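Deliverable D5.2: sample structural annotation.
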Amino acid sequence: MSDPQPPVPQPEPAHGAAGFPPPPPSGAPAQPVQPAPPAQAPQYGEYAPPAQVAPPVPPYGQPPQPVQAPQFGEYAPPAQVAPPVPPYGQYGAPTPPVPPAPGYVQPGAPSAYPGAWTAAPAAVRPLRGVGATARWLMLVYAAFSLITIAVDAWGIGALTAYDQGSAGIEALNAYDAVSIPLSIVALIVLLAAAVFWVVWQYRAAASLPAGSLRRSPGWHVGSWFIPIVSLFFPFQNVSDLARASQARLTPGIRGAWWALWISANFVSAGASRLMTSADSTAGLSGALGAAILGEVLVIGAAVLGGIVVSRITDAIDPARR
């Protein structure tokens, strides 16, 4: 029995032969391309291949990982979703909020006054040093006011003697030679006391619990320099400091201090106008008398102001008495 022979390949028909399809006639329209039939949904019971899931975008600088298609019957895991990118300026996950310091009212909590300042207090330096400096400078200014009273009384006497003819112009020149330098030095001491006062008041306001004051520490400083506002707000702010710190300051002490300070400013301003507009020795004597009254009021305000600073400082920082 012989082995089976492989089939012999048939030669491909030549062009124009019977088995070769004839070419389309010239000028005949081209046959339109038929669109592919739409995909048919699988019937009930038929196998539906799993949908292809787009691979996740690899992190910056890393090559993409090849995606392995699941085999038939294997579970296809869900696509990985990249975490949201944090907003600009933030690094990584948000940090937990820092709890407020003990003894302070958290911002937004109810306070002693409707609409009161409720910002968290800032870390401040101790009050005792700056408060003591402000108090001593006020006492030094009060001492200069005593000297000014004596010099102005001497000036009134010199004007009276000059008017009566018992003294010459040299007495008036001597008064000017003493009073002008004394006024300049007293003004420098007053400005230094004012600087230390506002620094002390800012630190005192920032050291108290938030919500116990009607105004922020910035307003405790700025209210001294705003016209009209400076007649009311500073007194209210100092009263808030005394009330919030439970200082041993009665309303009578605070009220007397503020009344003396406001009165001293008005009387001193009036004395300056009288001195500028005076055209006779009698007018100059009246201006010096008003200046003496203003210095007396300043002395009272300086003494009571030192008490205010001392007692509020002791109430806020009692451990260093």
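Annotation notes: Residues 162 and 170 are 9 Å apart (CA to CA). The helical segments are 128-164, 169-207, 217-222, 233-245, 251-277, 281-316.
The annotation will be released with the project's public dataset once the embargo ends.
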